[in-house]
Amino acid sequence: MVELALVEGVRRRMGDALFARVAGTKGPARRQRIHGRPGPRWFPADAAIRRVHGDASMFVGGVRALLLQSLHPQAMAAVAAHSGYQGDPWGRLERTSTFLATTTFGAADDAAAVVAHVRAVHGRIRGTTPDGVPYAASDPHLLRWVHVAEVDSFLAAHQLYGEHPLDPAGCDRYVADVAVVGRRLGVIDPPTTLRELRAELEAFRPELAATPAAREAARFILLRPPVPVVALPAYSALTGAAVALLPPWSRRPLGLPYLPPVEQTVVRAAGRGITSLIRWVLPPAPATPGLPVGATAA
């Protein structure tokens, strides 16, 4: 009994520390509002988006998404100039995790409010790349790239490291679910099936290139992470799993290795280990009360 209590204490401390990093000091209150506030939701309790976004594999998918998204020069220029990802990486993570949790699990009016806030922020972000190409964060084409890269990354991570991977029909449902949020954000006609998603990703390839800003972002994420020394082994397992999930064609521009034998054995085992550890230390989200409704954002 004493040993079990000690183990539970360790689990709780690790979980609290990780949750505080991801969700910030206001995380517990936000979590209670997101999951505890009565009212209709955009997605029903059995929605594919809830299964994917509620799983520890999102940590791997999130890193992969950042690396993949950086390959669009205009999108990366906007991030480098306006996101403050190096000066306040934990704040950016907190904002992203709150957005995902609210739109996936929160009450419909809260979800609509957080989307409206993001759209207002996007409306103020504009500039010019070092090559003289103008960009605007509200540009539907750039929003489409960010959306496609993110959805592909979250789904790829879930299918390999998720506790309950989706079947083919479930993958299509996930893409369709996230399209609801994408439309609200300003993405025009987002993909709604896995086949459409992959076709969209392929169609963007001629526009992609590794700029100095993209390579700097990769170095920051992979080599200079703002994490305590004691957490570096776990972080390395996480980022290694994310890099191994990237399409082979995306590696060379970012200076990332492509070692299939190692990735399919050592890296994959480490990825499964770290996602299992995260799943163990983070308690499951509380059940959402009330009767969720289907997505109403067409």
Report what the structure shows.
The protein is mostly helical and 298 residues long. It has one domain (2-281). Helices cover 66% and strands 2% of the residues. It is built from 14 helices and 2 strands. The chain has helices at 2-23, 27-36, 48-53, 58-69, 73-82, 89-105, 108-124, 140-161, 168-185, 194-204, 212-223, 232-245, 251-254, 260-281, and strands spanning 126-128, 134-136. The protein has a two-stranded antiparallel sheet. Strand 1 (126-128) and strand 2 form a beta hairpin. Residues 294-298 have low confidence and may be disordered.
Give the topology.
Blueprint: H1 2-23, H2 27-36, H3 48-53, H4 58-69, H5 73-82, H6 89-105, H7 108-124, E1 126-128, E2 134-136, H8 140-161, H9 168-185, H10 194-204, H11 212-223, H12 232-245, H13 251-254, H14 260-281
Quick summary of this structure?
This protein has 298 residues and is mainly alpha-helical. It has helices spanning 2-23, 27-36, 48-53, 58-69, 73-82, 89-105, 108-124, 140-161, 168-185, 194-204, 212-223, 232-245, 251-254, 260-281; strands spanning 126-128, 134-136. The longest helix has 22 residues, at 2-23.
Nearest-angstrom radius of gyration? Answer: 19 Å
* Category by helix and strand content: mainly alpha
| Cross-sheet strand order for the largest sheet | 1-2
Report the major sheet. 2 strands, antiparallel
Total number of strands: 2
Question: Please, how many helices?
Answer: 14
Percent of residues in helices: 55-70%
Extract low-pLDDT stretches. Answer: 294-298
Secondary-structure element order, N to C: HHHHHHHEEHHHHHHH
Average residue pLDDT: 90
For the record, the count of structural domains works out to 1
